[in-house]
Design goal:
Rossmann fold; 7-stranded antiparallel sheet; single chain; alpha+beta; 8-stranded mixed sheet; Methionyl-tRNA Fmet Formyltransferase, Chain A, domain 2
């Protein structure tokens, strides 16, 4: 079932007309920036309300909530490329269609609607990290830099011509959650600059080098299971890259133990032959240290079942953790 409000067509001012398509909170800074610029007559397209919570009540996405607060018309079709939604978009007579984490690929019939361009904001330095998880994977793979890209949309996934890019270093301890917030703000600023440049014909699109393209596949809860046989740097980056979603975890005493932060440390002298995943230190002084291949990692933040997130010191104070116990990939 489509959700829509009454939409008005025709330009009653000198403002350019813009259809903004976005869904999660990552898109909200861009939506606000475009609205606050006062350069555009806008409407907002979002994904339909989704069931959420224990009662599975239908709840609107972040962009829909904000768009309604701003007084914008909101349209939430199941598939934006179907005939009736296309007609609604065309009736608005947009100069731009802008997508930010919208969640649907646009078919050519929609891409041809705006008078100037369909523009997408993507949180990576394309052609690297195309796909649905471009914020997580640079951290997981130990990259030192990422950024945001605006591009002209085509029928592919993140394959269109590049308009503008802005790079930023990734902090040594920065998590995906922290980077997510920074890139959302950076992207909003770059989007304003991009649309102004397109309107003034001062931006020359640049073809992507498809041979250099890499992919950032979707992450699921199953991806969060920690493999302690990896090296410490890989494990530290992996945990950083999966905060907060889908999160990383292991099994301890047959129960899931969520892990939110690791630190590379040297393994205690007596532990070189211990299997990966073995607890090789567990005390207020030494912390909770787990054997990897090679060396070890210190568990800095964790969350037991049904409890809040806590430090390793707090965890050790309430649990009788013993050296030689295993953190496992399976329920043992």
């Amino acid at each position: 079932m489509e959700q829509r409000t009454t939409l008005s067509a025709g330009n009653s001012s000198n403002k350019l007309r813009l259809i903004f398509m976005g869904t999660p909170d990552f898109a909200v800074p861009s939506l606000r920036a475009l609205f606050n610029s006062q350069r555009y007559e806008m409407m907002c397209v979002t994904q339909p309300d989704q069931p959420s919570g224990r009662g599975l009540r239908l709840r609107p996405c972040a962009c829909k909530i904000v768009a309604q607060e701003l007084g914008l018309d909101v349209f939430s079709p199941e598939r934006v490329s179907r005939r009736e939604p296309r007609a609604v978009l065309a009736d608005f007579e947009p100069d731009f269609i802008v997508t930010v984490a919208f969640g649907q690929l646009l078919k050519e019939s929609v891409l041809n609607i705006p008078k100037i361009a369909c523009v997408n904001l993507h949180p990576s330095l394309l052609p690297k990290y195309r796909g649905p998880s471009p914020i997580n994977w640079p951290i997981i793979r130990g990259e030192k830099e990422t950024g945001v890209t605006t591009m002209l949309m085509d029928k592919g996934m993140d394959t269109g011509d590049i308009l503008l890019q802005k790079a930023t270093p990734i902090g040594d301890d920065e998590t995906a959650a922290e980077l997510y917030s920074r890139l959302a703000q950076m992207g909003a600023e770059l989007l304003l600059e991009t649309l102004a440049g397109l309107a003034n014909n001062t931006i020359v699109p640049k073809k992507q080098d498809h041979e250099r393209a890499t992919y950032a596949p979707k992450l699921t809860k199953r991806d969060g299971l920690i493999d302690w046989s990896k090296d410490p740097a890989t494990l530290v980056n992996y945990v950083r890259g999966l905060v907060p979603w889908p999160g990383t975890y292991t099994y301890y005493m047959g129960r899931i133990l969520k892990i939110s932060k690791l630190r590379h440390v040297e393994a205690p002298p007596a532990s070189p032959e211990r299997p990966a995943g073995t607890i090789v230190a567990a005390s207020p002084k030494d912390g909770l240290i787990v054997k990897t291949k090679p060396d070890a990692v210190s568990v800095e933040l964790l969350q037991p079942p049904g409890r809040r997130q806590m430090t390793a010191k707090e965890f050790l104070a309430g649990h009788q953790v013993k050296v030689g116990q295993r953190l496992s990939r399976l329920i043992e």
